[in-house]
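Comment on this:
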Amino acid sequence: MKKLKSLFSSPKKAAVTILCIAVIISILAAGTVLVANAYAKSTSIGAENAKNFAFADAGVDPVSAENVRTEFDFEHGQFVYEVDFIANGTEYEYWIKASDGTVVKKEQEVIMQMAPTTAPVQTTTPAQATELPAQATAAPQVTELPAQVTTPPQITELPVQVTTPPQVTTPPVQITSPPAQNPGAASYISIDQAKSIAVGHAGLSVSEVRFSKAKLENDDGYTVYEIEFYKDRMEYEYTINATDGSILEYDSDWDD
């Protein structure tokens, strides 16, 4: 007790003692934060799953995402993964809760104007050209008349003049081939419509579920949306026809 009092026996000793105590407390606090940070990261969903949750919520194909950046951080009293990426001319910023993948915060900003889609030009097939045979004008037939000879005292033989009919040239008939017809392009429902169809079939709403996958794929010659989402601990999987929105397959199971 006397030793403790001696540390505060003078203003100088008291100041040095308080400074030492503050340094010790700071070191202990920093060590505690590092330990807590390491434990939270080891028990989290992982950076790859955090990115997939962000892609699914944004309705973005991971292949089309650019400048993807993921960082583990502590924000507003909880550990989160900060996920940033650019896709389809839009910049996305997400905070994904590290423990269960919940979207804590999201922001998006359009950074470029997408080029308008040109509608396919439908070509009308013209009527088939009928080849008409060229009618040639027949040349008039010339009848050769025998020369009549009058017998005068002196007979003069006159030559018979024959007129040659003009030649008729038949112009060729030109046939114009019709241009080839281009088939129309197929149209699909949007990814948000596919999400709504799947969630509605499960008897839920989009606001109360957490999407882990929403992707346009080709399955056995069909273009489909693969939709996966969670509600509490139940996992739902749906395959939606991208052309007419019909449900091709669906399944639900407890997430272990």
